[in-house]
Amino acid sequence: xxxAIIGGGAVGLLFSSYLQEENDVILYTRSEDxxxxxxxxxxxRKNGEESICLPINVRPISEWDENxxxxxxxxxxxxxxxxxxxxxxxxxxxxxxxxxxxMGHLSLLNKINTRSLFIGSVEHGxxxxxxxxxxxxxxxxxxxxxxxxxxxxxxxxDELVLQSIKxxxxxxxxxxxxxxxxxxxxxxxxxxxxxxxxxxxxxxLTNKYYQMLFEQLFDEVCLALSxxxxxxxxxxxxxxxxxxxxxxxxLKDVKNDxxxxxxxxxxYVLEEAKRKDIEAPLTLAFYHCIKGKEIKxxxx
Length: 300
Hints:
By secondary structure, this protein is an alpha/beta fold. It has helices at residues 10-19, 32-41, 81-88, 106-109, 155-162, 176-197, 203-206, 208-225, 233-242, 249-255, 262-275, 281-299; strands at 2-6, 24-29, 43-47, 50-54, 57-60, 71-74, 96-98, 117-122, 125-130, 133-138, 142-148, 170-172. It contains twelve helices and twelve strands. Helix 6 (176-197) packs across helix 12. It comes from Robertmurraya beringensis.
């Protein structure tokens, strides 16, 4: 399959390195510097002590070309989506797969005029080391679901699932809203708490005071989203334990003075709470904490 991947962050590099093994991948980066680094060095993927280097076709996004592409995977942050969708004007017959955190981008996706639009939920741990290197810090699964599609494009998801390998599995999910909601709950609890406290994911369960915040925020998120806590708590704890040594993506963003995805995560929860006239004081407080850290980063 000929796949275009947009975004040279940790997830974009991870997807490119694995999918290049069975497909013809073109990676599009925001900068020419990153494209040049990958052209020179290939993509270096580290799995623990092991390291593999894969050559790959790479271009800056300014050289976008949709000809002969069978699937586009958008691996950029949620807040970058609107500009990319506007600038690239994807043709209606080009299938798109979005793999963002949160659910704030759903309103944008529903406005995109393409015949097949797929959504992914990425549960892998990944850390970009430099412009051409990524560390696969936690093996998870990529869940794939359909927002809308024509029957003739469904082979694409089948092919991605069939290509699953031990360290990069993929599976199909029937209900995209349930899939995204499970991921949202995980992101809404783990990401802001670890980013504010400056701790790894597992500390939220091993420190009794952090665990109290963990459970209180979880309860409030479920209330705001009208969710049955019993249907989501076990998955949240499982992810937290499975990624115990990892730093969340939001903590990494805060440490590197980058904009976070807090608006797509807790911002979405707050919008739902407001719509239902539900008080969510913890969610609002943690949202403001992260926004404050973003402003601090902008001033440095």
